[in-house]
Design a protein that fits this description.
The structure holds 2 protein chains of 2 kinds. By secondary structure, chain A is mainly beta. Chain A folds into 2 domains: about 100 residues, Alpha-D-Glucose-1,6-Bisphosphate, Chain A, domain 4 (2-Layer Sandwich), CATH 3.30.530; about 90 residues, Rieske Iron-sulfur Protein, CATH 2.102.10. A 6-stranded antiparallel β-sheet of chain A has the order 3-12-11-6-5-4, with no helix packed on it. In chain A, a hairpin with a 6-residue loop joins strand 8 and strand 9. The radius of gyration of chain A is 19 Å and the shape is elongated. Chain B is built from 4 helices and 17 strands. Chain B is α+β, with helices and mostly antiparallel strands. Chain B is globular. Chains A and B meet through loops of A and helix 2 of B.
Chain lengths: ~220, ~280
């Protein structure tokens, strides 16, 4: 059974199929050995990439003193809190407490872990472990992400579609827009463009999507 | 307005005395609008939103007041009266955090290598050795003693790394005083205080204050050093979840290095000092 607000994607024939994944960021925006904040529904996430390139999405909160882990630092395969340097590894487990270097941290000190996977240059996240991987979009490459201060439905409608995955034509390019619900009535818009687009076409696409954002936000503000 | 509880009858800093003008400073104390000003004779006065006079103490370079009726005088810092100390009003730093979280951060040394990197601490010197903590019933204060930490540049007057000795004292729900090794005068302690004005449960004005033996540094350098430290702290304080300080165990996991923080939370809870705190683990 699919919840009505479950994200959907397109299959080869253009029909929508459900996915339990939510688009949260673009792969290029979180390079190796870095962390960034993200959202999944009501959850704040720390999305981070290890030195070897593994992507992960964890609760954005160090269990020690509640500091956001997205402000932390990555060394090797560990994410460390910027406040006291507590280091977390595989499965969110605390492996190092610098104030007590000789202490093996108790097993119970863990950061809640979410599912994270990458496809077509997009980082997708999920609360549980979805049965299938996130969707691929052959021929398309992740282009850029924007935040829009408007409801996801309004953003989708402005792109001429509904739901989470929208095929649209913007600035003459056939693009896919992934819509992410954010808190406070905002939306994330993750845009994929044809792989072989030339720089001038991508500049025009950027301008078009920014204009679209201004239009949607102005309409939202006028309606408020 | 939130329940002020026992914190209503405590003293809080609301202005720097030497900055007071006749026009005054409009500010908040635990959600209540107040005005701090100098009267015709230059004496500090504080009024509430209805124009009623609130109690005033002018001490440590700051104006103190209370929305309630404090039973006790404001705490003292005897070292401030020692000859030869330079008294430094650092100024104000506004932080979007619980006033209690601001104090707790001040009591913490384990963050030095990560938040004040290469100044108050540096890797690999991260270990916090066992120290002593007690709630002194006679003075009703939290004290941490025999605290030691390796610091690359402990103070404006410090050259090169030293192991610094610390003592910490919580003398009011939003005020703490620390004593630390004084590089130019090893037989004495430098004194640094953190006076926190609770504007709301999640917003505060922090007024650091120092009484130092340092004859060489320019006053502006002393102030800038302390402000730099506090701006680094602010980046942490504004990003802790939840914003309110959890007083019940379970929401956060302390270790032995956090004994001062544990005692501070226990002392707050015992007194019902819960403005800016979260009581039930959420």
């Amino acid at each position: 059974m699919i919840e009505s607000d479950a994200p959907v994607t397109l299959d080869d024939s253009g029909d929508t199929v459900p996915t339990d994944w939510t688009p949260a960021a673009l792969s290029d925006d979180i390079p190796a050995a870095s962390a960034a904040p993200g959202q999944l529904g009501a959850h704040d996430l720390a999305i981070w990439r290890s030195a070897s390139g593994r992507i992960a999405a964890w609760a954005d909160r160090c269990p020690h003193r509640g500091m956001r882990l997205s402000h932390g630092f990555v060394r090797g395969e560990r994410l460390s809190c910027i406040y006291h340097g507590w280091g977390y590894g595989e499965g969110g487990r605390c492996v190092r407490i610098p104030a007590h270097p000789e202490l093996a941290p108790p097993e119970a000190i863990r950061v809640p872990v979410f599912s994270a996977a990458e496809a077509s240059g997009v980082i997708w996240v999920a609360e549980d472990a979805p049965d299938s991987p996130p969707p691929e979009f052959p021929g398309l490459a992740a282009f850029r992400s924007l935040q829009v201060a408007a409801a996801p439905e309004a953003v989708a409608a402005a792109l001429g579609g509904t739901g989470t995955v929208i095929e649209a034509t913007l600035a003459g390019l056939s693009v896919v827009a992934l819509i992410q619900p954010l808190r406070d009535g905002a939306a994330g818009l993750h845009l994929l463009a044809p792989e072989d687009s030339d720089p001038a076409a991508l500049d025009a696409l950027s301008a078009a999507v920014e204009a679209l954002r201004r239009r949607v936000e102005a309409a939202e503000e006028a309606a408020a | 307005m939130s329940e002020l509880g026992a914190m209503r009858d405590q003293w809080y800093p609301v202005a720097m005395t030497k900055q007071l003008t006749a026009q005054g400073r409009d500010t908040l104390l635990m959600g209540a609008p107040i005005r701090v000003f100098a009267d015709d004779g230059g004496t500090p006065k504080v009024t509430d939103g209805a124009g009623r006079a609130l109690p005033v103490i002018d001490r440590f370079g700051h104006v103190w007041t209370s929305l309630g009726q404090p039973e006790k005088d404001l705490f003292t810092i005897p070292e401030v009266d020692q000859p030869g100390r330079r008294l430094v009003d650092v100024g104000v730093c506004r932080v979007r955090c619980s006033p209690l979280r601001a104090v707790e951060n001040f009591l913490d040394i384990a963050h030095f290598p990560f938040v004040h990197t290469d100044i108050l601490g540096s890797e690999p010197h991260t270990e916090v050795e066992r120290y002593e903590v007690e709630i002194r019933d006679d003075v009703d204060e939290v004290w941490a003693t025999k605290v030691k930490f390796f610091q690359p540049q402990a103070a404006k007057s410090a050259e090169g790394g030293i192991t610094t000795d610390y003592m910490y004292r919580v003398c009011a729900p939003t005020c703490s005083v620390l004593y630390k090794t004084c590089p130019p005068k090893p037989e004495e302690w430098d004194v640094i205080a953190l006076f926190v004005q609770p504007l709301t449960e999640t917003l505060c004005d922090v007024w650091p204050y120092m009484a130092l033996y340092d004859d060489d540094a320019e006053m502006t350098d002393l102030i800038h050093f302390q402000q730099m430290i506090f701006v680094q702290d602010r980046s942490v304080l504004e990003n802790q979840l939840p914003a309110l300080l959890p007083l019940d165990p379970g929401r956060e996991i302390p270790t032995r290095a956090d004994m001062t923080s544990i005692a501070y939370r226990r002392w707050l809870k015992r007194h019902g000092f819960t403005y800016g705190a979260q009581l039930v683990a959420a």
